[in-house]
Amino acid sequence: MTTPASGPTGSEPPAPVLLTEPAEGTPDVVADAAALERAARLIAAGSGPIAVDTERASGYRYSQRAYLVQVRREGAGTFLIDPVAVDDQVDPLVEALGTGEWVLHAASQDLPCLADLGLRPTTLFDTELAGRLAGFERVALGTLVELLLGYHLEKGHGAADWSRRPLPVDWLNYAALDVELLVQLRDALEAELREQGKLEWALEEFEALRTAPPAPPRKEPWRRTSGIHSVRTPRGLAAIRSLWEARDTLARDRDIAPGRVLPDSAIIQAASVNPQDEQALLQLPVFKGRAQRRLAGTWLRALRAAAALPKSDLPDPSPPTDGPPPANRWADKDPEAAARLAAARASLTKLAEEHRLPVENLLQPDLLRRTCWTPPEDPSVEGVTAALRAGGARTWQTTLVAAPVAEALRATAKR
Hints:
single chain, alpha/beta, Nucleotidyltransferase, domain 5, DNA polymerase, domain 1, 3 domains, six-stranded mixed β-sheet, two-stranded parallel sheet, 8 strands, HRDC_dom_sf, nucleotide binding, Ribonuclease D, nucleic acid binding
């Protein structure tokens, strides 16, 4: 695997060069229509791939919108664009980015909020995904830049409140550095993938990521409340649901991250203790705070609404799913399916090791489980290929895995 430039043979590679600010200095924030027009003209006149990144405020705001968009292109420089300041009217940027190749790191995190601004790539290169396919064990941006380019990026503000205005200079430097070396990293990873014979795999993955439809809303999202496994009764689950929905409404209306309105741990505790009045509620640790005292009536109404529900409206402790049960239960529910899954997993693990890539990138684990739980009627390589393709597997994946999966299905069927 390619490594960063090193010293004389047998010596340790030189220490990475620390970057604390962009080579061209801290860019001004593009915060009005005229500045956006100028930036767009420069970006359009630049050449080569376009590095793109966003900053959100996930831990602070309910919205997953972009509070800053970073763009860098050869011949144009780096631009830090404040979409809020221009009322999300970024049409000049849409046109400037045009049909150029976008380079993002962990694109699935940024593409949704970019699409909300009308920004959608026509060609994509994801450096995180490229790093995974190339077999790097750690694929954080800073790690890959250090390994392949020999630079250490000043980090530390990724989880900051990017809705804050004005943004501090050190935050702006951090944001600009996220795109400073992204195109160079792209080139190094492309060379690595080409050398390993995986470039076509990566291009197919990038296109699948680029064209993926928006994720559908989660069914019963309240069931993802941290610690919910400790509450087992339908009435207790109803209390969690009611508190979660009350919190979600408040968070959405105020554009505050739900966990800052009321932490999950407090929801679980209130549902478990089931306080009968406001005084009992305010005895619980989190609810003693000033902010929670002001909202005590909201939380108590939610608890009382859950307590008043008829049994027919209580949530099921074990709701039906559209997929197979957890794999650790297969041996009891369907021993043959468990044998199929074990055989297929063993084959794919070996195949992933041979090709130096994570097994989950070789084939989506959920798709493998579904295929082994309900195998295709035709267990031939062709039949398995068709089933995997219908489940979303890419051509390069089915080329590699269809035969060993088909063999696992057939072998266990003979037992």
